[in-house]
Amino acid sequence: MTKMTMVEALNLAMRQEMEKDDRVVVLGEDVGVDGGVFRVTDALIKTFGEERVVDTPLAESGIIGTAIGMAVYGLRPVCEIQFSGFSYYIFHQLEAHATRLRHRSQGRFHVPLVVRAPYGGGVRALEHHSESREAYYAHTPGVKMVIPSGPRNARALLVSAIRDPDPVVFFEPKALYRAFREEVPDEEETLPLGQPRIAREGEDVTIIAYGAMMALVMEAAEELQEKHGIAAEVIDLLTISPLEDDMIADSVKKTGRAVVVHEAPRSFGPGAEIVSRIIEKSFYYLEAPVKRITGYDIVYPLSAREKYYMPDAGKIIRAVQETLKA
Amino acid sequence: MPRSEIELPYRVEYLSILDEKGHVDTALEPDIPDVLLLKLHKEMLAGRRFDERMLNLQRQERIGTFPPIKGQEASQLGAVANLKASDWMVPAFREALAEFWRGKPKENFILFYGGYEEGGAVEEGRNDLPVSIPVGSQMLHAVGIGMAIKYRRQPDVVMTFFGDGATSEGDFHEALNFAGVFQSPVVFICQNNQWAISVPRSKQTHAKTIAQKALAHGLPGIQVDGNDILAVYAATREAVERARSGGGPTLIESFTYRLSLHTTADDPKKYRSEEEVKEWAKKDPIPRFQTYLKNKGLLSDEEIGQLETEIAEEVQGVVDRAEKRMQEEVDPLGMFDHTFAELPPSLIQQRQEMEHELSLMQEEASHD
C-alpha cells in the first residue's frame, strides 16, 4: 500500500499493465518527454521507450484513427486526449469506426482501445478546459464510458479498461488529480466496468453522482447527517455507460427519494437517463419528485463565474431537504 | 506507357532581409514609410513589455493561465500591418499583439485571462474573430470568410494565424484545399515557433518545411525569417496583394521561436535545452530592428529610453483599468448572456433558479 494521488495511481495502472503486456502502448500529445501536461504518463517513456510511449503529432483524430488500426492488429493502445474539450475531433473516428468494427466485421475484428481525457471544471482554466460532456460518449452505442472518483478506483478501473476487449472512454476528474491521496495497493487490483458502488449507506434519501462531484456529495452527506440528522445513501456510478441500475433501484426502493448530481449540462445529461431508470424500476416507491443538481445548459463560464455554475455542497443539501419536505 | 517526371511549376523560397545583427539586404528592403516603421517598433516593444507584465501578474495569481508571445512580435506585426481595417483576421491564441494592432484594447486581454468573458468581446467594426483555442480549428473559418467576400464581390482579404502544431490537424489540410479549390482570398500565416508544447517541429512533420505543404494544394508557399519584421512584412504584402487582386491564397511559414512558455501552466525545462533558448535569444526580433532603425537615423538610444518610460506608464494604466473593471464586473447571471439571440423558456427557468440560489447564498453569507 502506498498513499497516492490520482495522477500517480493512473500512472501506476499504465506502468503495471505495460510491464505485464507488451501489447499495451501509450499514444498522445506530450505524453512522452513531457510526461503529459498533468504528468499522468510521467517517466513511462524512460522505462518503455518511445516505441511504446509515443509523442504523436498534434492531431486528435489521427491519434484515435491510428489507434483503431493498432487495436485491430492486436495491440492495446491507451490514448491520451489532452483535455476532453478537445475530444470532439476524435468523435468521428470513435463513432464511425471504433464502436462499430466488431459489429461491421461480424466479430472478426474488435477495437480494444482506451481514450483517457481529463474532464470537468473548478480549476480556473481557459475555454474548452472545463467541460463535462460525458453524455456524448454515454449516448454512443459500442463504447463504454468510465469516470473514477478517487485514486484507488481510478487505478483499478483503468486496468480493467485497458484489458477490456472493446473501446472505453475514460474521463479523469482533473479537479481530483491532486486533491487528495489514498492508499493504493502495490499488487494488481481491478474493478469490473459497469458496476457502481455504495459510497455511503443511509435510509432517508439516495444521492447518485460520479467523478469530481463525489467529493462534494460526500461532504454534503456528512453535513446532512451531522447538522440535520438526515442519512443519505450515496451511489458512485464509476461507469456511466453501460449504466447498471439495479443498485439504484434497490436504494430508491429503500429511501423513496433521490437526488442526482452532475456538473454536466442538465438537459439530456446523464441525470436524465438515471431518473428515467428510477421511474422505470422504482416509480411506486417514490415519495417525492426526483431532483437534479447539475450544470446549466450554457457555455461553461470562465473562472470568474465558474463557482456559480458548479454544483456545490450547499445546493445538494438544499435539494435533499426539499426532497424530504415533499 | 512511360515512367516519366511530372513537371511541377513550384518552388519554396526562403526570405530574409534583416539579419540578427541588424544588417539589411538593401536589394530586398521593402519600402515602408518611416512613420509605419516607428509605429511597428513601438508596438513590438510595447507588446514585449506587456507580455512580461502579464507573466508577472499570472505569477502573482492576479490573472489565470495565458499564452505568452515573447519572441514572436515581428512574426505577428509584420503580417498584420498589411491589413486594412475592412479586411478580416482569424487568430489562433498566440496572436495578442496582432489583435492589439487591429484595435483590441489591451485591458480586454487582462479581463479575458482573468476569467471574464467580457474580455473576449469584439468591438463593432473590428473584423477579427475571437481567439480560437482548439488547435487548427479556425483556418477553415478564414477560408469561408474569403469565399463569402468573393461571393459579395468585395475587395477584402482574410489573414489567419496558426502554429506549427496546427499543421498536423486534418482541418489545416482541408483549409488549404478549400482555399485552393475556391481561390479564397486568404493569407495563411503559420507561426512556426518550433515547439507545440513539448513536441518539436521535427516530430510534427517529416517534411523539410511547412511552406511546402502549400504545393500539394496548388498554392504558393514561402518560408520567411519570422524574427525579421522586414521579411515578414515583404512576404505578407505580396500575399495580401495577390489575394486582393484575385490571385488566391498563399501560405507563409514564419520561422520563429517561442522564447517563453507554451502557457503559464507549462515548464519547458522538461523538454528543451537552455542552450537552444539562448541561441534563439540572439535572434530576438527587437534588437535587430532597433539597429536597423538606428542605422537609418530614425531612432536613438535616448528615444528608446523615452519609449520605454512611456510604455511602462501605458502598461500600468492598462493593468489598473482592467483590475478595476474586474472588481466591478461579476454579475454571475451574465453567464447566461449570449447563449442564444433570445433565451428560450427552459433557460429563463434555469436563470431564475440561479437567481434564487444566489439569494440563498447571500442569506447564508449574512448569517455567517
Write the layout of secondary structure elements.
The complex is a heterodimer of chains A (326) and B (368).
Chain A: E1 2-4, H1 6-20, E2 24-28, H2 44-48, E3 53-55, H3 60-73, E4 76-80, H4 88-98, H5 101-104, E5 114-119, H6 134-138, E6 144-146, H7 151-163, E7 168-173, E8 182-184, E9 197-200, E10 205-209, H8 213-228, E11 232-236, E12 239-241, H9 246-255, E13 258-265, H10 270-282, E14 291-295, H11 303-309, H12 313-325
Parallel strand pairs in A: 2-3, 2-4, 4-5, 5-7, 6-7, 10-11, 10-13, 13-14
Antiparallel strand pairs in A: 1-8, 6-12, 9-11
Helix pairs in contact in A: 1-7, 3-4, 8-12, 9-10
Chain B: E1 13-15, H1 34-59, H2 73-80, E2 88-90, H3 96-102, H4 106-113, H5 139-151, E3 158-163, H6 170-182, E4 186-192, E5 195-196, E6 199-200, H7 201-204, H8 213-216, E7 221-225, H9 229-244, E8 250-255, H10 274-281, H11 285-295, H12 301-328, H13 345-367
Parallel strand pairs in B: 1-7, 2-3, 3-4, 4-8, 7-8
Antiparallel strand pairs in B: 5-6
Helix pairs in contact in B: 1-2, 1-11, 1-12, 2-3, 2-9, 4-12, 5-6
